[in-house]
Amino acid sequence: MTKPQSTHTHLPQFYAIGLSYKKADAEIRGNFSVSTTAQEAILAQAKEEGITGLVVISTCNRTELYGFAASASQFIKILCKHTYGTIEEFDDVAYVYEGDAAINHLFKVGTGLDSQILGDFEIIGQLKVGFKNAKNIGLVNPYMERLINSVIQASKRIKTETEISSGATSVSFAAVQYIMARVPYVTEKNILLFGTGKIGRNTCENLVKHTKNDHIILINRTKATAEKVAGKFNLLVKDYANIQSEIAQTDVLIVATGAQKPTINKNLIHSTKPILILDLSIPKNVASDVTELKNVTLIHLDQLSKMTDDTLKRRQAYIPKAESIIQEIKAEFNTWLDTRKFAPTIHALKTKLSDIQALELTNYRKKAANFNETQATEVSDRLIQKITNRFAMHLREANGSSQQSIDLINAIFQLEKNSND
């Protein structure tokens, strides 16, 4: 497991913990897959434990938690409690980042640079959903809000200013590429898509666009969901109860149900003609026993994601530009972070100067018979504002020595010790 790293010493408790396709196979990723119900439970427990910020993302390629905790182990325990994964499994394949390293990782993930297929931007949608869910329960603090909005901004700019996502390559598109490369006369083949969630919908759209096939059948446990997708593309929908007979007639079966256990096994397959099965699900939705049938070829999304083509090679040329955009936006975030760091000191300084102002005005009010308090207040208010502005400017430009300046200001003006907490 990657050891925690820390460079932002002023906020050492921001963590990114998780596992991905890089070290965790589909089975392990399936154990740590977070359902909607599990995500709600994770957020609820985090709030009970006093965690102030937490965003959860779980896709077919990764499960990750970003937020503030007493320690990384606090997040790991919560994750394992609400999934099928164990702490031992997590330790074998996971990563833990802290502070600046966690920020860097979030930027890479959110901008598609850490995706299994370079430039796959579907992850930013998952991050937005996780962000919204956390916000709804009150688990987004100002730090998290600013950081995630910065990542979303970087994602938009990279998409707009580079061609790193050209060709719209994703797991769903890779599945269609695979079918077109290995299934002859694909326009004449029967294709059955089981599952019309996000990956299913994207796959369906790519099938219609690229195969020009009008023999595509959709099946979903909730028929109304499939009918919505079918209506958009003028496709047929069959009842889930008929799945066995539909499999018997199909040449290509694509499974993307999002179930926690396999929904397809060899007992459902009674045809002897060749059938290609693509499992685009995490956890796996197709039982491995289907490979005992000689007429079945089973391909899982991990195999699809390893496919390399000219499109992906071209994308690699845009990585430096994408990284420079990230560095620019990250620098803006760090500037905000530094400003946020010394803002309490400036506020405490202004309060101290206002106290001095009030005391002096009281003294002059007693001494001077014709004392113009309104004018004196206006002049001293302007002086206080100019002084605090000068100190704020100095702290912004102090680079690495801002903490020394903060300590000096605190000492000179005898500010409260907690002014910068």
How would you characterize this protein structure?
The chain has 421 residues and is an alpha/beta fold. The protein is built from 16 helices and 10 strands. The protein has a 6-stranded parallel beta sheet, with helices on both faces. A 4-stranded antiparallel beta sheet has the order 2-3-1-4, sandwiched between helices. It is elongated and about 105 Å long. The chain starts with 13 loop residues before the first strand and ends in an 8-residue tail after the last helix.
Briefly say what this structure is.
With 421 residues, the chain is α/β, with parallel strands linked by helices.
Instruction: Give the number of domains.
Output: 3
Strand content: 5-15%
The parts where pLDDT drops under 50 for at least 5 residues are 2-12
What order do the SSEs take from the amino end to the carboxyl end, as H and E? EHHEEHHEHHHHEHEHEHEEEHHHHH
Look at the structure and give the CATH class of the largest domain: Alpha Beta
